[in-house]
Amino acid sequence: MQVAIDGPASAGKSTVAKIIAKKLSFVYIDTGAMYRACTVIARNHKLDYGDEENILKAIDKDGIELKSENGEQKVYSAGEDISLEIRTPEISANVSQVSALPKVREKMTSLQRQMAGKTNVIMDGRDIGTTVLPDADVKIFLVASARSRAERRLLDLKQRGIKSDQTVDQIEADIAARDYKDSHRKVSPLKKAVDATEVDTTEMSIDQVVDCILEKIQEKQKKF
After folding, report:
1. pLDDT at 38
2. Was 12 annotated as part of a binding site?
3. What is the pLDDT, as a whole number, of residue 119?
4. Which terminus of the chain is more solvent-facing, meaning fewer CB atoms within 10 Å of its CB: N or C?
5. 88 within a domain of the structure (yes/no)
6. Which residues are involved in binding ATP (predicted)?
7. Nearest to 52 by CA among 95, 96, 106, 101
């Protein structure tokens, strides 16, 4: 069974996807982390974030690996754990540019489909229901106000121990800018699949969002 959860930055996709995957014993794949890893690789190699050819070469050299450790998904590249590094403000500010590169998306999409394989999987990102897993059994599109997403992003940074001098207003502006970039890129733009269920998480708790999505999954499981 394939479950696709899409939506803009900090709408709660990864948080709820991890919880649901654990409850159902599904494999969880965070595609956003993969694009962030590509951005870290570009930065580590001192490449321009628009240098598609050399970014691809660097990705091939360093590699990207997702590992499950103590119930948490970790991201590795060049043998190093970059799980915290991919969440820093610098990477957040530049990941849209890297993820918009056509051949980078093509490479990541291929990897994501391979990971999905023939197992039960829950995958979150921007274009899962429209491009990566267009035949997913359940498609969810999470939305939330830019302000609430900014507050969540700031709290997440603090909980991860990542230092940031940004205010909520600055993060909100960054999120709004990323929304525009993600929804207006030429390749696989952020958009709701026609057969996806939209869930506005602005006023919802994590548990409420999880229960809502679990209900949709269980409805589909009954039909299998």
Report:
1. 98
2. yes
3. 85
4. C
5. yes
6. 7-15
7. 101
Q: Is 11 annotated as a binding residue?
A: yes
pTM: 0.85
13 annotated ligand binder: yes
Q: Please indicate if the annotation marks 93 as binding a ligand.
A: no
119 is in an annotated binding site: no
Residue 37 lies in a domain: yes
How many angstroms separate the Cα of 190 from the Cα of each of 46, 73, 183, 184, 187?
28, 24, 4, 8, 9
Number of domains in the chain: 1
Give pLDDT, residue 86: 96
Residue 223 lies in a domain: no
Residue 32 in marked binding region: no
Domain that holds residue 131: 2-205
> 9 among the known binding-site residues?
yes
Burial class (CB in 10 A: 0-12, 13-18, 19+), 93: middle
Q: Using alpha carbons, select from 8, 14, 11 the residue that is nearest to residue 29.
A: 14
pLDDT at 13: 93
Q: Does residue 212 lie within any of the structural domains?
A: no
Is 193 annotated as a binding-site member?
no
The pLDDT value recorded for residue 41 is: 98
The label of the residue with tokens 């909520």 reads 168
- CATH number of the domain to which 127 belongs: 3.40.50.300
